[in-house]
Write a structure and sequence with these properties.
- There is one protein chain.
- It contains 3 helices and 4 strands.
- By secondary structure, the protein is α+β, with helices and mostly antiparallel strands.
- The protein has a 4-stranded antiparallel beta sheet.
- It is globular.
- It has one domain: GIY-YIG endonuclease, CATH 3.40.1440.
C-alpha cells in the first residue's frame, strides 16, 4: 500500500494556486468543471510539473487539480497507476 504523506484538497487550476503546491514528489489529478478526471500524472516535483501543464494548456478543460504528496518518486508512480485505474481519466493515452 502506498502511504500518502499529505493530501492537498481540490483547488482551482491557476498560477496563484500552482505556486503554492509543494515541490515534493507525488501524484496529481487534473479535473474539469464537473470534477471528472481529465488527466492523472506523477512527478518528482509537483509544482514544476503543474506549472508545465498550466503554461502549455495541453488539457484545455482543466478547472481544478488535486495533489497527493508521497515520500518518493517510486511511490508516486505506484499511486499514479492506482488513481488511473480508479478514475479512468479522459486524456491519458495509455495506462502508466
Amino acid at each position: 500500500m502506498v502511504r500518502v504523506v499529505r493530501r492537498t484538497y481540490t483547488k482551482r487550476f491557476g498560477p496563484w494556486n500552482v505556486e503554492n503546491v509543494t515541490s515534493a514528489s507525488g501524484a496529481y489529478v487534473l479535473m474539469d468543471r464537473n470534477g471528472s478526471a481529465q488527466y492523472v500524472g506523477c512527478a518528482s516535483n509537483l509544482r514544476q510539473r503543474l506549472r508545465q501543464h498550466l503554461d502549455s494548456a495541453d488539457i484545455p478543460d482543466t478547472r481544478y487539480f488535486r495533489t497527493y504528496q508521497t515520500n518518493s518518486p517510486q511511490k508516486a508512480r505506484t499511486l499514479e497507476r492506482k488513481l488511473f485505474r480508479k478514475l479512468k481519466p479522459l486524456h491519458n493515452v495509455v495506462e502508466p
